[in-house]
Specification:
29% of the residues lie in helices and 20% in strands. The chain is an alpha/beta fold.
Length: 450
């Protein structure tokens, strides 16, 4: 029987595949599409990608742990660059041979301690461990809006948005001011007759560069400060760089900086200052071809685009194998089910910095635990006790906004420190040591036939 079933050949699933491969643990990796990359392939059905999309963290902070992104990439790579990088990584790590493409998992059920996995077009197969790495941005949240049956315009979720040409000649309202919502609003500013953005709450905006350096690089190279000091220093720095955001019509945030995922965007300020984007309050109701806002203002709108986020669902788990908070799975260290043995979730979290290297360290923990189950059952049993009882604070001292989105949000530095502490406690070989022995690979994009 094959040891591990991984579902999803996006970055998190590939990270685990790499770790299992070099540890000699047998696995199958199922991907419903025809190549690796997950949501980064704009042609995959249901991908939330759009033509102007770029990585939200810089290339410097975003590569896999021993496979830095190429120097040829821009500071913030495009979705095409990221897809090519993922595929080159997969090829150079020799992972393609393990992947079953065009293989959608329809059901996974635990029977007598084993997982029975049903894949479209294949016979059911048994596994000791199931890893859910199918990604978080596939199932759109679509709010109901009062009066929408009377609206004469078009309402779309951002998942359907691909090209800015959609906005040409229209009055466009973007609902939601997350990173994607603000990016799309900037697209609309260039093509629409008028772009509006409806914001239910205020957010902290961070430019993509601070003094010419990518913001996350600037933060990582600065002096290490307690979070409460950062929360005092950064607002003043940002105000010095960009001015008072409330002057541009942006609502004042009801939380401190870093208590919600910041909006990393430099274009937004430009279009607000030029009137190409106008800020509106939350929607009260729709009336014919008008949108009426909670402050009584009304605007004639042709297209409402809902940048209202996604639900983190695992559709092939029909039983209640995982506890949820809102629509976010709740697992130990965002990895291990506390209730169901050998059920692992990877990639179902958000963090304040690049995620790919973090996936590697999470995948390393999973791999070391699986190795212990065979080589050192006593140590594995010790870790299983921690899965059920350990409840670390991974917030890094940040009082995150109480929302579904932040139900599994982690502070990357705090999480990494905890993983390293766990490695020492469990006497596992640190990933840094393995990477040093193996050495970094140079991701050769030219080797791809794309």
């Amino acid at each position: 029987m094959t040891n591990v079933c991984i579902i999803g050949a996006g970055p998190s699933g590939l990270s685990l595949a790499w770790q299992l491969e070099r540890a000699g643990i047998s696995f199958d990796l199922y991907e419903r599409n025809n190549d690796v990359g997950g949501l980064w392939d704009i042609n995959n059905p249901g991908s939330p990608m759009y033509e102007s999309a770029h990585f939200i963290s810089s290339k410097t902070m975003s590569g896999f742990s021993n496979a830095p992104m190429p120097n040829s990439f821009a500071d913030y790579p495009s979705h095409k660059d990221i897809l090519n990088y993922i595929r080159a990584f997969t090829k150079q790590k020799g992972l393609y041979q393990h992947i079953h493409f065009n293989s959608e998992v329809k059901n996974a059920e635990q029977v007598n301690g084993q997982w029975i996995v049903s894949v479209d077009g294949l016979q059911d197969k048994h596994y000791e461990t199931l890893v859910c790495a199918n990604g978080v941005n596939w199932h759109p949240k679509i709010p109901k809006i009062k009066g929408q049956e009377s609206f004469t315009g078009e309402i779309l979720h951002a998942q359907k948005y691909k090209k800015a040409e959609l906005f040409r000649g229209k009055n466009v309202l973007i609902v939601g001011a997350g990173n994607s919502g603000c990016d799309i609003a900037c697209d609309a500013a260039q093509f629409a007759d008028q772009a509006f953005i409806s914001m239910r709450r205020g957010y902290h905006f961070v430019p993509k560069h601070i003094f010419g350096t990518p913001s996350d690089v600037f933060d990582s190279k600065g002096p290490e400060m307690p979070m409460w000091i950062k929360q005092k220093v950064f607002p003043g720095l940002l105000k010095m760089l960009e001015g008072d955001p409330q002057r541009l019509g942006l609502p004042k945030p009801d939380h401190k900086i870093f208590e919600s995922h910041p909006i990393l965007n430099s274009q937004m300020w430009h279009y607000l200052r030029h009137g190409d984007i106008k800020v509106q309050k939350d929607i009260d109701y729709l009336d014919g071809d008008y949108v009426v806002f909670t402050d009584g203002q009304k605007q004639k709108v042709d297209l409402i685009l809902l940048a209202t986020g996604y639900r983190s669902l695992i559709p092939y788990l029909k039983n209640d194998y995982i506890q949820y908070q809102g629509d976010r799975p709740q697992t130990y260290l965002n990895l291990f089910s506390r209730d169901v043995p050998n059920l692992i979730t990877l990639g179902f979290m958000e963090t304040n910095s690049g995620a790919y290297a973090l996936f590697d360290y999470m995948a390393h923990m999973v791999t070391q635990y699986l190795l212990d189950k065979t080589r050192n059952p006593q140590n594995a049993a010790k870790f299983e006790t921690l899965i059920k009882t350990d409840d670390p604070d991974l917030s890094g001292g940040v009082n995150y906004v109480k929302s579904d989105r932040h139900a599994n949000y982690i502070n990357k530095a705090t999480y990494m420190k905890y993983l390293k502490k766990m490695n020492k406690r469990m006497k596992w070989t640190p990933l840094d040591k393995l990477n040093k022995t193996e050495g970094n690979i140079t991701v050769e994009l030219a080797a791809l036939e794309i």
